[in-house]
Every structure is written in C-alpha cells, then in structure tokens.
Amino acid sequence: MSKLMLNAKNLLAAAAGAGILLAGATTAQATESGRAAAQSGQDKPTIVLLHGAYEDGSSWSGVTNRLQHDGYNVLAPAVPLRGIASDTSYLRAVLATVSGPKVLVGHSYGGALVSELADTSGVKSLVYVAAFIPQAGETLGALNSQFPGSELGPDTTNVISYPGGVDLALKPETAGPVLAEDIPAREGAVILAAQRPVAAAAFSEPVEKTAPAALPKYAVIPTGDHAIAPAAERFMATRAGATQIEIPDASHLVAVSQPTAVTQVIERAAR
Known about the structure:
InterPro entries: AB_hydrolase_1 (IPR000073), AB_hydrolase_fold (IPR029058), Sec-Metab_Biosynth_Hydrolase (IPR052897)
Distance between the termini: 69 Å
Strand content: 15-25%
Signal peptide: 1-30
Number of domains: 1
CATH class: Alpha Beta
Number of helices: 10
GO molecular function, one term: catalytic activity
Protein name: Pimeloyl-ACP methyl ester carboxylesterase
Helix content: 40-55%
Strand order of the largest sheet: 2-1-3-4-8-9
Order of helices and strands: HEHEHEHEHEEHHEEHEHH
Mean pLDDT: 88
Number of strands: 9
Largest sheet: 6 strands, parallel
Domain AB hydrolase-1: 47-263
C-alpha cells in the first residue's frame, strides 16, 4: 500500500476519532444543560391558572406562553363552571396531581375558586386578576352589585333554560365592549363565539371559605373594567390584605390584552 493511501487512512481515522470525542463532549454538555434546566424548573412553583365564567383555558394563552418561556410549569385546567362547590371539588382533584409548590391564579369568577382552594397543600401564594376575592358566606352576585360600575346584566346576557338547570351566556352583540374594550373587535368576537356558559346559580351560591390571612396575595386591578367595578376589586383586595397592582385603562380581559403585565405579577408572586 502506498504511503499516500496510508496517510489518507490515518487522517480519516484521526478525523473519526475527533468526531467521536466532539460528539461525546456535545452530548455531555447537552445532558448537563438539560439537567440544569430541569433543576431550574423544579425549583420554581407550578403556576395554576383558573379562568372565569364564559371562558376556557385559552384565555390564558398569552400568559401561559410567557410563563413557560421563563421556565415555569403551567397548568390551565378547564373549569366546569357548574357552581362554586362543584367546581372546587373537581379542581381539588386536579390539584392533587400537581406535586410541589403551587401558585394559584384566578380570573374573575376564578378568584372565588382560588380562595376556596387556598388551603390546598403546597400553595404558596394567590393571584387575583380582575377577580372576586370573597369571604365566607358571601355571594358573587351581591359583591358585584355592592358597587356601581358593572355593566353585566339583562342587556348583555342570555338566559338558557334546559331540563338540568339554567345557564347564562353573553350576548356577542352587546358584551364585547363590557369585557374587552381594549381588544380589537374581531378578536373579541372570536372569544365570545367560543364562550362557555356558566350555571346561573354560581353567582348566588355562598362561598364557604375565606382565603388564609397569612398567605401572600396579589390583585391585578384593570381600571377600565366594566364587568367587575374597579371600586369593588379595590375593596375586596384591601380587605384581603392583597398587594394591589393597577393596570390603567385595561379591560376585564386584561390577561388577553396585557399578558406581559399580568405575567410579571404572577412571577412576582412565584418568587
């Protein structure tokens, strides 16, 4: 065999060996990087996002995307919207599948569920986003009528009677400005087209629990809310001892219109 061929073989062998070493180093680095990322995720609490009446988990999409980008595990379960006791019972079973520390976040009606679930093992803080923060024995309907400013009512709501009960749904032609004044009309129309009706009894059903006073609480208050009056949100937040963060001129669907601002509050609560 010629010296030229031997040299070529030697070069190929050396290159292959270097490739193996490089691949091994790259694999080790990737594995270590993956372990570090996993460890970082394990160090952070799981963020549980509870949507409100007429909504589903997609209302949290912008917030979920940002939280996941920042390394948080996120769960945005479908709330049945059948009533406070019924929904709480179901969500307790959902939370039982989540190990480690948790931050509970509730929008609107979801705030009442956050208060009921606050005693769940591992919950480290609560975030209320344009939400009810009721105390034991109160109803959401009474709280919302206590302060002027809510524009939800017969003009914006359809009543759906069926053999199993009575549901409420929003009228797309009138509810858009009430819920989503700062969202493009076409986007608001898509949200209303996919809305999920809520049991009417949910607003007259007394809440069973007050969130523990010692648990850190944060309240996002959109000052342009026409579904729950900002004055009512401030009253409930002050009474609960929550840190209040106001977002000027934001609508009731503030998590949709201002997901970055809402995410920042949630991550503050997580820390």
